[in-house]
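Both lines are given unchanged directly below:

***
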Amino acid sequence: MILVTGAGGKTGRAIVDALTGQGETVRVWVRRPEQANGLPCADWIAGDMQDAPIWEAACQRVRAVYHICPNLHPAEVAISHVAVEAASRAGVARFVYHSVLHPQTSTMAHHWRKLESEEVILASGLPFTILQPCAYMQNVLAHWPSITQRGVYPVPYALDARLSLVDLRDVAGVAAKVLTESGHTGAIYELAGPQPLSQTEVAELLAESLGRPVRAERVAWAQWEADARQRGMGEEAIATLLAMFRYYDRHGLVGNPNVLGWLLGRPPTSFADFASSQ
């Protein structure tokens, strides 16, 4: 059996689908029981990842773990300690951690916590693999009504900021591969799409796919912050994401697609192909 934590989110669901599509038996860990609805798994566990006894139960009779910490969780490093301790005691044969592209970026707190968690895993003695995906192409779908109805792709950072994007389905395919095939122990894999794009270029590719004009439009940070607070986002998450936007403004976030292509055995999905599939 393979344990997938954080299975209620889009990343976890994609990885569970990839694994069960290969006939693997999966145990899913969700925050709330209702999040297990619709997942193709009869075996599930629910609760807070900071709860050590739940980790002990979750790792029983599990040969591999795919660990996804809740997004922007301030206690991610502490959770990583609990996770590797439980996995070690249970004799888990493979521990795969869902990290992020360029975790060594100290000005982005959520990236830095990933780096510290990687260090915890490296020191654990567990047979590990670490995946470092860049931002998902699927993230643009959060703005799909604006894109399709108003022709506006809203972005809270510079329109010329270049970001590497990856199709979540490619990431899920790689996750299933490293969980079920040999030869990936001790590896740290950067997972980036084929070409970094500016936000203007993203809008142009969306326009080409939809057959109608789409323009990228910068959202002022004050407006984004007000909207985020109205949606109920916490103050720490807001501060973390604003720091990320500032970083993107100055540096973008660019990775290399070679490793992903090698793992997939084909070129990574392009944004144009992703957009045309929507």
Summary: The longest strand covers residues 128-133. The chain has a mean pLDDT of 96. Residues 2-135+167-192+255-269 form a domain with the Rossmann fold fold (CATH 3.40.50.720). Residues 235-251 form the longest helix (17 residues).
